[in-house]
Specification:
379 residues; two-stranded antiparallel sheet; alpha/beta; globular
Length: 379
C-alpha cells in the first residue's frame, strides 16, 4: 500500500485549486462575462461541476474593485425566504465588520427594521430577520441593495445565485420574476449570474418569450468534460501519490460515470483508497459495487415514488432505449400500455428531474441510477 495518506480526489462539495480540472474555455467565457457586466445564465444537470466552476471564477476575478456575492437559494420555499436570504448574503459578503453590517442594513433597509442575531462566532454565525408589512417599496429596497452598496463603496458586485430555478416553485412566481427583472435590469454596478440543475425549468425561465427573464443574459450550456481530458488528470493524481493506473482503467471510470464530474472524482476516490500501488481491474469493479451500495438507499427511495408506468419507462432506458418509446415493440416489451401514456410518463420523469432530453433522445441524469436499475431483476 502506498504511503500517501491524503486522497487526491474531491467529491460532494465544490472543487477548488488542484482538484479542479479543465473547463478552460468555460472559465474564459464566464470570466469575460462577469468582469464586463454581462448577466449570465449557466445551465447543466447536477454533478456536472457548475458550482465549482462559478466559485473558481469568482475567486479569480475578486479584486479591490470587484466583489463577488454567492447565494444558494435551494432551501428557499417562499418569496419571503428569498428576500431574507438575498439581503443577508449581500450585507454579509460586502462588509467585514459587525458594525458595518448594522450600518448597511439601517441605511438601505429603512422600511424594514432589521434585527440581528449573532451566534458564538459573531463574524460568521449571523443572520438578519425582518419585520415588515409586505409592500412593493420594501421588496424593491432589498432588490436594490447590491446597487446601493456598490455605489456607496465604489465597487462592482457580481451576484451569483445557485439553484435559481427554485424560484419557479414559489406561489405567484411570475409576479416575483417580473419584480426582479424590472429592478435588476437597470442596475449599472451589479452583474448577475444565475445557475441551476433543472435544465428544462431554467430554459423555460430564460428562453421563453412569454417569461420575464427572457433574454436577460448570455446563456451558457455546460458540457461534460471529455474522457481524453479526464484520463490524464486521473492518471496524474494517482502518479502524484505513488500509485499507478492505466489510461484504459481511467477511461473505464469515465465510462461508468458518464463523465459527470462529481461521480468521476467519487469513483476515482474509491478506487484510490481500495488499491495498492498498482490498480487492478478488480479494484475498479469492487469500487463500482461499493458506490452503487452507498447510493442504494437513495435509488430505492426514488423507485418507491414512481408509478408502475414510470418504472417501466426507466427500465426501458436502463436497457438501452433512448428514443422511439412510442413504437409498438417498446410499448409491448416494457408494458407501457400506449403511446399516449409514454408522453405523460416522460413529462412526469422530467419534472422529477430523473431524466432529461437532448433533442429527441432521453437520458438519465444519474448514470449510477441507470446502472443500478440495469442490475436489478425485473419481473
Amino acid at each position: 500500500m502506498s504511503m500517501a495518506t491524503e486522497n487526491p480526489f474531491v467529491f460532494g462539495k465544490a472543487v477548488e485549486g488542484p482538484f479542479f480540472t479543465d473547463r478552460i474555455e468555460d472559465s474564459k467565457r464566464l470570466t469575460a462575462n462577469l468582469t464586463h457586466g454581462i448577466n449570465t445564465i449557466l445551465i447543466s444537470p447536477r454533478r456536472w461541476g457548475k458550482t465549482s466552476l462559478v466559485k473558481k471564477v469568482l475567486a479569480e476575478i475578486e479584486t479591490s474593485h470587484i466583489k463577488p456575492i454567492f447565494i444558494d437559494i435551494f432551501h428557499c420555499k417562499s418569496e419571503y425566504e428569498f428576500y431574507h436570504t438575498f439581503a443577508t448574503a449581500v450585507i454579509k459578503q460586502t462588509s467585514s465588520k459587525i458594525n458595518e453590517w448594522v450600518e448597511m442594513a439601517k441605511t438601505f433597509l429603512t422600511s424594514i427594521t432589521p434585527k440581528f442575531s449573532f451566534g458564538p462566532d459573531p463574524m460568521n454565525d449571523f443572520s438578519i430577520s425582518f419585520e415588515w408589512n409586505q409592500k412593493d417599496d420594501t421588496e424593491v429596497s432589498i432588490l436594490q441593495l447590491p446597487e446601493k452598496i456598490a455605489q456607496k463603496k465604489n465597487l462592482r458586485l457580481v451576484v451569483c445565485m445557485d439553484e435559481f430555478q427554485q424560484m419557479a416553485e414559489f406561489s405567484d412566481s411570475l409576479t416575483l420574476q417580473k419584480k426582479l427583472r424590472s429592478v435588476w435590469q437597470h442596475q449599472q454596478n451589479v452583474t448577475y449570474c444565475m445557475f441551476g440543475s433543472k435544465k428544462h425549468l431554467l430554459e423555460h425561465m430564460f428562453n421563453d418569450k412569454s417569461m420575464p427573464f427572457y433574454k436577460f443574459g448570455d446563456m451558457i450550456f455546460l458540457k461534460k468534460i471529455p474522457t481524453d481530458e479526464w484520463v490524464p488528470f486521473i492518471c496524474k493524481k494517482f502518479q502524484d501519490t505513488g500509485k499507478s493506473i492505466t489510461p484504459e482503467q481511467a477511461a473505464r471510470i469515465c465510462e461508468v460515470t458518464d463523465n459527470l464530474s462529481s461521480y468521476v472524482q467519487h469513483l476515482s476516490w474509491v478506487v484510490w483508497y481500495k488499491s495498492n500501488d498498482i490498480v487492478t481491474d478488480d479494484d475498479i469493479s469492487t469500487a463500482i459495487d461499493d458506490l452503487l451500495e452507498q447510493n442504494k438507499v437513495f435509488f430505492q427511495k426514488d423507485v418507491e415514488q414512481l408509478s408502475e408506468l414510470q418504472y417501466n419507462f426507466l427500465r426501458a432506458m436502463a436497457m438501452g432505449v433512448t428514443t422511439g418509446f412510442s413504437t409498438k415493440d417498446v410499448v409491448r416489451q416494457y408494458r407501457l400500455e400506449s403511446s399516449a401514456n409514454v408522453q405523460s410518463v416522460k413529462k412526469a420523469l422530467l419534472k422529477k428531474d430523473i431524466i432529461d432530453m437532448d433533442g429527441k433522445f432521453v437520458y438519465f441524469n444519474d448514470p449510477l441510477f441507470k446502472l443500478w436499475l440495469k442490475r436489478q431483476r425485473f419481473y
